[in-house]
Amino acid sequence: MPTSLTNTALVYTCTPAPACAMASLRELTAETENELGYTVRATVADTAPPAIALADRAGWSEVVVPLVTAGRVGALVVASVGDLASEPFERASGMAWLDQHDVTVTALRPRAWEMRAWLELWSGTAPTGSEAPRRTARTRSRDRVCRFAFPADRQGIGPARAVIADRLLAWCPARADDAITAANELVANAVVHGSTQPDQSVTVTLERRGRELRISVADTSPRPLPPAPRDDSVSAEAESGRGLLIVDAFTDRWGCDLLPDGTGKQVWASMSLPASARCPRGTRSSLALSHGPDARAGPAHPAETA
């Protein structure tokens, strides 16, 4: 196969528990890359009950559907096709839609009722284990997206920072330290100052588009951020107020946009990447974790404010 083409996959899971979703995604992604030989463009976890319709799941509608309809993935990898829906007709409809877009469904942990005969009946494919077809080639791209959400309490900051560090070290090692530092400050700011209730969500979106890296963190506070304070206006002993100074110092641009539906705001920062930055083999996966069916992160590319 020419080096300019590659098989691309999207790893998907749906479970109500965020911790289980994260663990499942990491295991499935490793198997997809190391055993099946796919390049994983994105991984998506919907933290919702499988009984929720596909169209009502945030991760499916906001990440899976655009990638599939744009022809950017050749396979959808799941633990079980039960992740698509708990109701048989809904599963069949989802698999038929994927088949119409030439996307192979690969179940790495199939249940007894979803073995070869059942899946061939619905989609004409035999997507288990080493038998997974390699038929779909896609153009290699350095574009990556990582999207996840977590409950807005302080206990979620550590796991969120771990996901951020994992992705940014893989995508942009030359500027990873700067990007991680800025992203960590935005996450902490959203949890501590941008959310009023622990049952609210903070949504993080990391995007690499060519040589630009964009970090966006959405919270439920509709109040815009004040301008970054002057460095000499914040004392060294201050417990807060230095976050925006750090973001301003470690990124090229940053800003704040109110979400169009009035449910909160999205604070973003962007930076240019060196031309030599690459996505190493085996670390191409992107993680998108949506916290429940109603989690929304606002527009993927909000207009930048002056």
Describe the secondary structure blueprint for this structure:
Elements lengths: L4 E2 L1 E7 L3 H17 L4 E8 L11 H12 L5 E4 L9 H13 L3 E4 L8 H8 L14 E2 L4 E8 L5 H15 L4 H18 L7 E9 L2 E8 L23 H8 L2 E6 L6 E8 L14 E4 L16
Helix pairs in contact: 5-6, 6-7
Give an overview of the whole structure.
It is a single chain. Residues 1-6, 117-140, 233-240 and 279-306 have low confidence and may be disordered. Strand 2, helix 1 (18-34) and strand 3 (39-46) form a beta-alpha-beta unit. This protein is an alpha/beta fold and 306 residues long. It has a 10-stranded mixed beta sheet, sandwiched between helices. A two-stranded antiparallel sheet has the order 1-6. The longest helix has 18 residues, at 176-193. The chain has 2 domains: 5-139, Rossmann fold, CATH 3.40.50.1390; 144-284, Heat Shock Protein 90. The protein has 7 helices and 12 strands. The termini are far apart.
